[in-house]
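Tokens help. Consider this.
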Amino acid sequence: MSISIDNFLNEKLAGNGNIVWVKPNLSEEVGEYTENEYTKHWLKEKGIVFNTDKEVLSFLGTGKITPVTKEELMKKYDNLTLKPSEFEQELKDSEYMKSFRSMEDVLARGSITLPAPIILFIDGTYYGFAGNRRLNLAIKHNIPIKVWLVQ
């Protein structure tokens, strides 16, 4: 019985890799608001509207790195891809897949340092603001998740 390289790496990585989560560069993530109509609409429904990049940065700056489980995120979420089948659909985009596979390659060597995904927690709902690939890397490889949680 032979085992494929992908299966071997997946088994080898499950629980063995390590992600060092660091504070995201918030100024690099402002576009997740300014260029995303869904995010603007979702926040507006919550009574949150930003007129400048500085306002977005100030809002995001209130977050902190917080451990969270996939199960906790699954309780009530919007704009997060938490199911492997849904994430596989996103990997059909070649640039998205290339980026994800690159992170996996580094993780296969033992450890990777990544900016924590940015998750908003508003009105009892977790909203994925930025970092879907990073979040799914941890989920796929059974690595504890830490997010930059903005409440």
